[in-house]
Amino acid sequence: MISAASRPRRAAPSRVARSAVSALERMAVGVPVPVDPESAAPLAMVVFPEQNTASRPIFNDVVTEMVQSLTKEWDHQEQLLQAGLHPSLTALAYGPPGTGKTSLALWLAKELNLPAVVARLDGLISSLLGTTARNLGSLFEFANRYECVLILDEFDAIAKLRDDPNEVGEIKRVVNALLQNMDGRAAIGITLGLTNHEALLDPAVWRRFEVQVPIPVPAVPERIAIVAAALGDTPGIEAEAKLIVWMTDGFSGAEVTTVCKKWRKRQIVDGLARTDAVQLIMQVTASTAARFGAADRPEWPNREALIADLVLSDTLHFSQGELAHLFGISTKTVSRLVNKIQSEDGNA
């Protein structure tokens, strides 16, 4: 659909060793998880390897290299231990929502062939004095008993700045309890923290994570790969796929995937002609990115204005044939418009 040469590499799978946690118990399906004493709600859910459907996330080269370095440490931990070193067992993934943090954590657990114990830390917070700290203790006690990957989602819910004047003493005690539990698990098992709000994290929390992985919204190369994965091998939509990539600048990977699925569903259900493609893609991108606000979304007063932006784009090149296909006009008309646009741009 879009040249594979321009696609970023995915985090390559590795046969990760498990000896770092081999002294622990194997977790059986149906094992009871700890619950909140106030509400009886489970403090975590367990995703077993055979249930784990996470696929390899699509990241830029920098993030991919960081992930590969981490899995290589796990894969070669025997050599590291012989040298008096230990593989990194703690990692923090941070970035905007929908960028692949949870998928990454679950995929790493899948690569290890270990159960993932997934806890949303905002769900551990209790209104009862002391209960939140006890919930943390119960969660870590459970995870430390078994061979597993502990995934702490919404990490910022508890790990806030301890010197924040708006936080009460109880929260400060909870942060200390979290740090103590992380220290106790440091040599026992793998812990992955996930947060959308890294600025809220206490500096002491950052120090507990040996590997810190920033995950940004996807740039053009990553969006090309995400769109290709979402649309599959559907023939004859190369220009539409490129337009989706161009129109989803600033979108998270999850939002790009949503745009692709919404567009395909509308295209199939409504039986739209090709000349409707541009309008439909504009509609689904606008409805998917409502969080940007109307003032932040580009608008074009007419077809020529949009064509001008596509012609002058410095991120993706649209051929005259692609523009003719997208807008349902002749290449002769496109050529005339392109010449006019480039002439006006040169005189600007």
Distance between the termini: 35 Å
CATH superfamily of the largest domain, by name, is: P-loop containing nucleotide triphosphate hydrolases
Enter the CATH topology name of the largest domain: Rossmann fold
The helix tally amounts to 13
Helix content: 40-55%
User: What integer is the average pLDDT?
Assistant: 86
What is the SS-derived class? Answer: alpha/beta
SSE arrangement, N to C: EHHEHEHEHEHEHHHHHHH
Sheet-strand content, in percent, reads: 5-15%
Principal-axes shape call? elongated
The biggest beta sheet reads: 6 strands, mixed
Q: What number of structural domains do the residues give?
A: 2
**What CATH architecture label of the largest domain applies?**
3-Layer(aba) Sandwich
Low-confidence stretches: 3-21
Rounded to an integer, what's the Rg over CA atoms? 24 Å
Strand order of the largest sheet: 1-3-4-5-2-6
At the first level of CATH, what is the class of the largest domain?
A: Alpha Beta
Give me the count of strands: 6
What does this 3D model show about the protein?
The chain is α/β, with parallel strands linked by helices and 348 residues long. The chain folds into two domains: 4-214, P-loop containing nucleotide triphosphate hydrolases (Rossmann fold, 3-Layer(aba) Sandwich), CATH 3.40.50; 220-347. Helix content is 45%, strand content 8%. The chain is built from 13 helices and six strands. The chain has helices at 61-75, 77-82, 101-112, 131-145, 169-185, 203-207, 220-231, 238-247, 253-270, 277-288, 303-311, 320-327, 331-347, and strands at 45-47, 90-94, 116-120, 149-153, 190-195, 211-214. It has a six-stranded mixed β-sheet with strand order 1-3-4-5-2-6, sandwiched between helices. Helix 9 (253-270) crosses helix 10 and helix 11 packs across helix 13 (331-347). The two termini are 35 Å apart.
